[in-house]
Design brief:
The protein is of the alpha+beta class and about 100 residues long. It is built from 5 helices and 3 strands. The protein has a single domain (about 25-95), classed as GMP Synthetase, Chain A, domain 3 (2-Layer Sandwich), CATH 3.30.300. The chain has a 3-stranded mixed sheet with strand order 1-2-3, with helices on one face.
């Protein structure tokens, strides 16, 4: 078998993830991991848990006033997370 073009390991891994349809799930995990960097450690202190499913980031906040304030900043947070990822992964944020 003759090789026609060489690929880097990164390209091979990206092709595999895309072929197995794991790239979306990986991006969702990255989005969840970016939460402390995007909102800062002060707000992250009040975060009990966070999950991402089908483009919806669900964040459990232990402070009701902070939850209301974050609801007002929802679109800005979505833009910052997606900008950090380089593509649209998060479509909505739900605060509980």
């Amino acid at each position: 078998m003759k090789r026609t073009e060489a690929q880097t390991i990164g390209q091979i891994v990206d092709n595999f993830l895309h072929h197995e349809q794991l790239d979306t799930q990986l991006d969702e995990l990255r989005a969840s991991a970016l939460w402390p960097q995007v909102v800062g450690q002060g707000i992250n202190r009040y975060t009990a848990s966070r999950t991402v499913a089908r483009g919806v980031l669900t964040v459990h906040i232990t402070s009701a006033p902070l939850r209301n304030e974050l609801m007002l900043m929802r679109s800005s947070i979505i833009q910052r997370i997606n900008a950090a990822l380089g593509r649209e992964v998060i479509r909505e944020i739900v605060f509980r």
